[in-house]
Task: structure prediction
Amino acid sequence: MKQDLINQYNIRLQNKTLRWEGFAENKTIRIIETCHPFLTDFLNDYSAEDLTDYIIPETEKVMNGTCEEFETGSATISVSVFIGKVDFYDHNMNFVGHIPVQDFKDICEGWRDFLIS
Result:
């Protein structure tokens, strides 16, 4: 992922260890944090496989003009991908912000690469 993108969105990729009282084993998960809370929530809901097989290819179809729009989401966040931007909507379908589509794709690829590393 490009450093200017990391700086612009204050991206932090982390391994986080979860500990539960009364359980012998800890669990380590990978998380992404950004200055855009809805982007953060959206990305943390998707696996490397989801990103590779679905999110990134569908975003590329929109960027290449093969498809007009692409909509997807999780339990808490929905996105609409257009040729120039990605709109974010909360669980009530209220518009909560947008980012450029190229940034979205690059961040998705960087997140996927971290997940598979």
Summary: The two ends are 13 Å apart (CA to CA). The mean pLDDT is 94. Residues 69 and 99 are 15 Å apart (CA to CA). Helices lie at 3-9, 37-44, 48-63, 101-116.
